[in-house]
């Protein structure tokens, strides 16, 4: 339990490894259990604090800690025999012994890539300005990985951003890589593997950075900010994600997930038999009369969007992607992969249990994915009185991010990400009429329909993905379908790369090349991103190393998008000159309306090699990524630590 904790509310549910009393330091026994899964540092003179010590009350804590975590990456199986060792007891169905190595998931047996035999992986919960040290030990046989700390700026530790072949070499099987960074920016974040498709196979978890009472501008809006009130939602296959890449046509075509999970938990109904698994559902406990801060994290990987509602409860939205905003009430939260939203839930309904409902919306709506968790008031049974809600595509009430994205005017039924006022003051220089750089970035797909002779030309190996319709495609930004260099530019430089202005003459569209644009340190960068494709897809674009200011989000007609964008940009310039932009909320991940556009800006104050990409893992692996290279490596970037791992091609002279 975290802030402003009252002794009466120390009735804690130990149903996940992250629960427990945290204003206290915990009994030695609890601490020991906690340590089993997180590990203990060895061979170090630094005083490390345990995860439990670090997940303390930040409102009063004055000390800064060095928080240590040990992540063990493995191939693992859900519903295995470990689950027999740790059945919840009858007296308290919620109690799982903390050292339990059972992953239930949705009750379906499958292979996963786990971190510490948990799903999600261990929750990192620290106070602002703590140091976070994570040893990632890769025990997955013959699979490489990296872990990215989504939303963390990594100033001064740019080489710990966790992007393979950009900021580090991947962590090879059998080796351990230590990440260490300052928890400098506060808010709701998460971590996930940035290697290929590992994320949806299970390599993800929450990362929460709390603030002192004085530093948190939203402090007065809630009474409690509990460690257990993290709502991490994810999509889930019943097989490894690689089985869907590049994609089959006959059996399980496409990349629509089989199910959704809430904090790694849920149930699944087999539509062939109508049987439903009996796996646990997540339960969030509240006490009537209190206001609770909930931290919602979208850890989806596919093009499915998430809609989250809490029956009979309005949610007061207080932060987007970690950045506090002037609060507004909403009834449902629609989010895409990589987005986070903080809300305050006032537990003022009749004492009882209420459904927390998560549905898959957008392009995956035909799969009618539906998952449930429970909001339980103290003193009520944990079974809601009303029947389990079934799938419905869009919930009634005020929606955060309605799928039609009419974001240019206020409407009673929906509110867009660009319509919030940031609490932290916006630097007026961001409004300069002429930015130092204006990147106009059309993105979309290159369709190989009828071009099979190109795609499958012997001796060539272009990347591609096959969605449910069976037509292979590659994705691109500004006609470049990104492939990474063979070694990370941050530590080993880069020889050949492309940007939209200088495509190699002999590179045919879509040009497979490392897509990198150079930007001077402290320059004002404007990005105008538009979707040339549409067709229901709503791409969430994420920028590493920064949060950006959203200027505009809008729709375009289906044809003549390039010309329409000229009008949009002219209009944007008029608005800049007329000083019409008033809100400019910060985000690090933004949904681009289907076939529409987004305009954002950031002040490039953080040097580095920053990935900018669609957050759908299957779009990433076929090229929807690029890198903003900010600053000069020699003068602006810190040197990588001694013995930083290197990787390269090996091509000795022929003998
Ligand atoms: C499953 O339940 C649905 C709805 O009740 C019904 O239409 C369907 O026939 C059932 N299928 C099987 C295999 O029992
Ligand atoms: C709670 O929500 C249900 C529908 O989910 C509705 O039927 C009921 O009237 C609501 N109760 C209250 C007290 O608002
Ligand atoms: C519950 O709290 C919400 C949010 O503060 C408020 O809008 C609503 O009117 C309250 N309902 C009751 C029954 O007090
Ligand atoms: C907002 O956009 C819609 C269509 O994209 C348009 O019909 C409407 O006039 C616009 N509203 C404003 C205030 O510009
Ligand atoms: C960017 O930040 C730097 C350093 O704080 C500042 O000097 C510069 O004026 C800022 N530029 C813009 C356009 O905000
Ligand atoms: C991108 O490629 C398409 C198809 O070859 C071409 O029509 C278009 O002009 C290109 N755009 C740019 C910005 O090069
Ligand atoms: C492209 O052109 C460069 C230099 O003109 C040449 O070295 C390279 O081999 C060419 N690549 C292909 C794929 O033709
Ligand atoms: C889209 O088409 C409508 C009707 O032809 C037109 O009024 C509108 O201006 C167009 N939108 C844009 C962004 O050009
Ligand atoms: Cu995408």
Written account of the structure:
The protein is mainly beta and 655 residues long. It contains 8 helices and 36 strands. It has a 7-stranded mixed sheet, with no helix packed on it. A hairpin with a 4-residue loop joins strand 11 and strand 12. It starts with 27 loop residues before the first helix and ends in a 25-residue tail after the last strand. It binds 2-acetamido-2-deoxy-beta-D-glucopyranose (8 copies) and copper (II) ion (CU). Residues 427, 429-430, 432, 522, 524, 603, 605 line the site of one 2-acetamido-2-deoxy-beta-D-glucopyranose. One 2-acetamido-2-deoxy-beta-D-glucopyranose binds at residues 427, 429-430, 432, 522, 524, 603, 605.
Highlighted features:
single chain; 655 residues; mainly beta; Immunoglobulin-like; 3 domains; 7-stranded mixed sheet; 6-stranded mixed sheet; 8 helices; disordered N terminus; binds 2-acetamido-2-deoxy-beta-D-glucopyranose; binds copper (II) ion; metal-binding; Cu-oxidase_C
What's the CATH topology label of the largest domain?
A: Immunoglobulin-like
Q: What count of domains describes the coordinates? A: 3
Q: Classify the helix fraction into a percent range.
A: under 10%
Largest sheet: 7 strands, mixed
Which term fits the overall shape?
globular
Strand content: 25-35%
The helix-and-strand class reads mainly beta
Distance linking N and C termini: 66 Å
CATH architecture of the largest domain: Sandwich
GO molecular function: copper ion binding; oxidoreductase activity
Signal peptide: 1-23
Keywords: Metal-binding, Oxidoreductase, Signal
InterPro entries: Cu-oxidase-like_N, Cu-oxidase_2nd, Cu-oxidase_C, Cu-oxidase_fam, Cu_oxidase_CS, Cu_oxidase_Cu_BS, Cupredoxin
């Amino acid at each position: 339990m975290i802030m402003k904790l009252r002794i009466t509310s120390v009735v804690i549910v130990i149903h996940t490894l992250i629960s427990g009393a945290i204003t206290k330091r915990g009994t030695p026994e609890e601490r020991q259990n906690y340590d089993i899964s997180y590990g203990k540092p060895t061979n170090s003179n630094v005083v490390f604090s345990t995860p439990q010590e670090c997940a303390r009350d930040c409102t009063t804590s004055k000390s800064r800690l060095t928080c240590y975590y040990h992540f063990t990456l493995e191939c693992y199986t859900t519903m295995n025999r470990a689950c027999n060792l740790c059945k919840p007891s009858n007296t308290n169905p919620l109690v799982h012994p903390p050292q339990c190595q059972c992953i239930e998931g949705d009750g379906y047996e499958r292979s996963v890539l786990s971190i510490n035999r948990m799903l999600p992986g261990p929750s990192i919960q620290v106070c602002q300005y703590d140091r976070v040290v994570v040893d990632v030990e890769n025990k997955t046989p013959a699979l490489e990985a990296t872990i990215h700390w989504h939303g963390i700026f990594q100033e001064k530790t740019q080489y710990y951003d966790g992007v393979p072949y950009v900021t580090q070499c991947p962590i090879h099987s059998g080796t351990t890589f230590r990440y260490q960074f300052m928890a400098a920016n506060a808010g709701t974040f998460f971590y996930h593997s940035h290697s290929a498709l590992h994320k949806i196979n299970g390599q993800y978890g929450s990362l929460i950075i709390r603030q002192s009472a004085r530093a948190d501008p939203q402090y007065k809006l809630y009474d409690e900010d509990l460690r257990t009130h993290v709502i991490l939602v994810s999509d889930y296959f019943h097989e490894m994600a690689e089985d869907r890449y590049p994609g089959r046509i006959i059996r399980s075509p496409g990349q629509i997930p089989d199910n959704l999970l809430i904090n790694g938990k849920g149930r699944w109904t087999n539509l062939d038999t109508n049987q439903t698994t009996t796996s646990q559902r997540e339960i969030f406990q509240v006490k009537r009369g209190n206001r609770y801060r909930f931290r919602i994290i979208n850890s989806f990987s596919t093009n499915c969007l998430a809609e989250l509602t809490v029956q009979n409860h309005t949610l007061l939205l207080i932060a987007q992607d970690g950045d506090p905003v002037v609060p507004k009430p909403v009834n449902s939260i629609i989010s895409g992969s990589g987005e986070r939203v903080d809300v305050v839930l006032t537990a003022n309904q009749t004492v009882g249990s209420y459904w927390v409902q998560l549905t898959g919306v957008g392009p995956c709506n035909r799969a009618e994915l539906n998952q449930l968790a429970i909001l339980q008031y103290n003193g009520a049974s944990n079974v809601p009185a009303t029947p389990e809600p079934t799938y419905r595509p869009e919930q009634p009430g005020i929606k955060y991010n309605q799928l039609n994205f009419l974001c240019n005017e206020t409407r009673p039924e929906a509110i867009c990400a660009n319509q919030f006022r940031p609490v932290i003051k916006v630097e007026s220089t961001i409004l300069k009429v002429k930015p130092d750089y204006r990147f106009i970035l059309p993105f979309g797909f290159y369709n190989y329909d009828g071009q099979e002779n190109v795609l499958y030309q012997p001796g060539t190996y272009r990347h591609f993905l096959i969605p449910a319709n069976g037509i292979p495609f590659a994705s691109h930004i500004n006609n470049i379908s990104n492939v990474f260099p063979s070694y990370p530019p941050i530590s080993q430089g880069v020889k050949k790369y492309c940007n939209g202005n200088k495509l190699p003459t002999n590179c045919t569209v879509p040009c497979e090349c490392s897509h990198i644009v150079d930007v001077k340190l402290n320059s004002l960068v404007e990005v105008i991103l538009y979707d040339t494709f549409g067709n229901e897809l709503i791409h969430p674009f994420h920028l590493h190393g920064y949060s950006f200011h959203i200027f505009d989000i809008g729709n375009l007609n289906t044809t003549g998008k390039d010309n329409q964008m000229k009008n949009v940009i002219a209009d944007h310039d008029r608005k800049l000159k007329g000083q019409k932009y008033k809100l400019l909320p910060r985000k690090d991940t933004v949904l681009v309306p289907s076939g529409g556009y987004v305009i954002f800006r950031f002040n490039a104050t953080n040097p580095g090699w920053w990935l900018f990409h669609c957050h759908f893992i299957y779009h990433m692996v076929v090229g929807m990524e690029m890198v903003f290279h900010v600053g000069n490596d020699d003068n602006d970037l810190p040197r990588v630590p001694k013995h930083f791992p290197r990787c390269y091609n090996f091509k000795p002279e022929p003998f």
